[in-house]
């Protein structure tokens, strides 16, 4: 049994095509939002990395300029 293709699409096929189109558009929007969030996270990580490195450099500079810690001298016990 061979069916001829209708000259006009049925209401069901139109509705199916519309659902596919809507799903494709929503998928594209979701991917774009996901990409924007990923970019924002990477930018924030870079900002925090710069701040951390600056803080570590400042601490290293302060440690280098600090006077050396006094060492305790041990007394030798004298045998009695």
Main features:
80 residues, mainly alpha, 1 helix, 69% helix, 0% strand, rod-shaped
Descriptive account of the structure:
- With 80 residues, the protein is mainly alpha-helical.
- It has one helix at 11-65.
- It has a domain at 12-63.
- The longest helix is centred in the middle third of the chain and has 55 residues, at 11-65.
* Chain-averaged pLDDT: 89
Q: What structural class do the secondary elements suggest?
A: mainly alpha
Task: From the alpha carbons, calculate the radius of gyration and give it in angstroms.
Answer: 36 Å
Please tally the helical runs, counting DSSP H or I stretches of 4 or more residues.
1
Helix content: 55-70%
State the low-pLDDT regions, or none. Answer: none
Assembly category: single chain
β content, as a range? under 5%
Number of strands: 0
Cα(first) to Cα(last) distance is: 120 Å
The SSE string, one letter per element, is: H
**Main sheet makeup:** none
Question: Per the principal axes of the C-alpha atoms, what is the gross shape?
Answer: rod-shaped
């Amino acid at each position: 049994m061979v069916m001829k293709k209708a000259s006009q699409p049925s209401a069901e096929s139109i509705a199916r095509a519309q659902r596919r189109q809507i799903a494709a558009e929503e998928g594209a929007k979701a991917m774009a939002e996901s990409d924007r969030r990923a970019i924002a996270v990477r930018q924030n990580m870079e900002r925090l990395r710069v701040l951390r490195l600056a803080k570590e450099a400042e601490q290293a500079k302060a440690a280098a300029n600090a006077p050396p810690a006094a060492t305790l001298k041990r007394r030798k016990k004298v045998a009695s």
